[in-house]
Amino acid sequence: MARLMNNSLFGLLFMLVLVSHGFCEIFDVSVEEYVKMKEFLASVNKTPVKTITTKNGDVFDCVDIYKQPSLDHPLLRDHVVQLEPPSYPPMKKLRRPSSYITMMTENEGEEDACPLGTVPMTRVHMEDLLKFGSVENYKSKYGRSGYNPLGQTDKHQYAVKRTLGGPFYGTQVTMNVWNPVIDTSQHQVFSLAQLWICNQQGSDIDTVEVGWHVYPAFHRGSTTTRLFVFFTGNSYGPGSCYNSMCGFVQVDNKVTPGMTLPKVSNYGGTQENITISAYKDDTSGDWWLGYEDSNGYRAVGYWPKKLFKYMDKESNRIDWGGETASYVGSGTTYAPMGSGHFPSEGYKKAAYMSNMKIKDSSKNFVDAPSNLIPQTPTPNCYKLGDNSADVATIGPHFYFGGPGGTC
Fold first, then answer.
1. What does the angle CA 306 – CA 310 – CA 313 come to, to the nearest 5 degrees?
2. pLDDT class for 156, splitting at 50, 70, 90?
3. Calpha distance 149→153 (Å, rounded)
């Protein structure tokens, strides 16, 4: 139910009482913000041709590819959708199987996909927005924490390797996939592994970010490991967002940001990987996303170059590694990163990034330099291993992560 409250200190508020799974939650939001939430839901939840409910309870609406939410972005009103990239990373297009399907339905063992001409969009619920307090909090990378990575360091931690200078036009990397545990009672937000493609000019930054994360608040309490994308064209300000809500143009009908990855690694056992390509197409100038696992390669979608202030031209920084975030910052207990074990434990026990490549000024994908710059501000919680050849079968790689704790 919902009722109005008039409070001289806070103004006009909605008090919303939601009952879910036997629990009662109360949210106070301004009338203005509540109206914004309703408008946002109307803009992102397009009329579906088909709806898929996964075994995790996720709802994906199959939406006409030409009516997806990102095309409502003010910078994309006249954008012509590219159905596939003009160019592919080396050897990738040939490996695309027509039968590849990833979405698991609510019935164990059944698989489904959106019809051709439609693309899967995660359905957003009012409850999702209320838990974040505002639409912009929901879309921002760090949620309700209010964190901005250009101005604070106490609400996130990271362990990455970096290359600077450029110009760079993309990267490709194989990511080891795990399922770190997030303790929301300790104000933990997420744990992730990703690539960052950036162009930073002083205090301004554009980024394209792709990887996997465990982020319960963003995914209706789910603790599964999921594919995600994020971008900002204005230094993490309003308009930045996750997945396909406001800028990323989805073109694949099966693989989509927000989906649960079907397999994760086991400590001391089977290792699961995904390979991510994010690169600037030489013809269109758009930034394309490619996804590959044991089933093959898919061109998932792209960020049009119009979204960016600086990356419409090139990147000057690429990072690979992990990150965690907290709502409260100093004194909190941070989540595990990667496998939750330090790099010194090695293969099958520590998370790794392997076969890092960059698209350089020659517009070719070449091996990343061996002298990558390590960034580990809290080594008591998270560490990096040297670029290593201890396991030849996975190619050049480095380990990252750790148990977290009080950093």
1. 75
2. confident
3. 7
Residue 143: how many other CB atoms lie within 10 Å = 21
Residue with tokens 């009103």, as numbered in its chain: 77
| Mean pLDDT, range 183-206, rounded to an integer | 95
DSSP string, 81-148: PPSS-SS-STTTGGG--TT---EEBSSTT-EE-PPTTEEEEEPP-HHHHHHHSSHHHHHSTTGGG---
Question: Is the torsion defined by CA of 323, 326, 330, 336 positive or negative?
Answer: negative
Distance CA 280, CA 91 (A): 17
Mapped onto helix, strand or coil, the DSSP state of residue 307 is helix
Alpha carbon of 13 to those of 34, 59, 105, 138: distances in Å? 9, 30, 39, 19
Could you tell me the pLDDT band of residue 16, with boundaries at 50, 70 and 90? low
Q: Which residue has the tokens 């030489």?
A: 282
Q: Is pTM beyond 0.85 here? A: yes
- Phi/psi at 111 (nearest 5 deg)? -125, 155
Q: Give the pLDDT score at 352.
A: 98
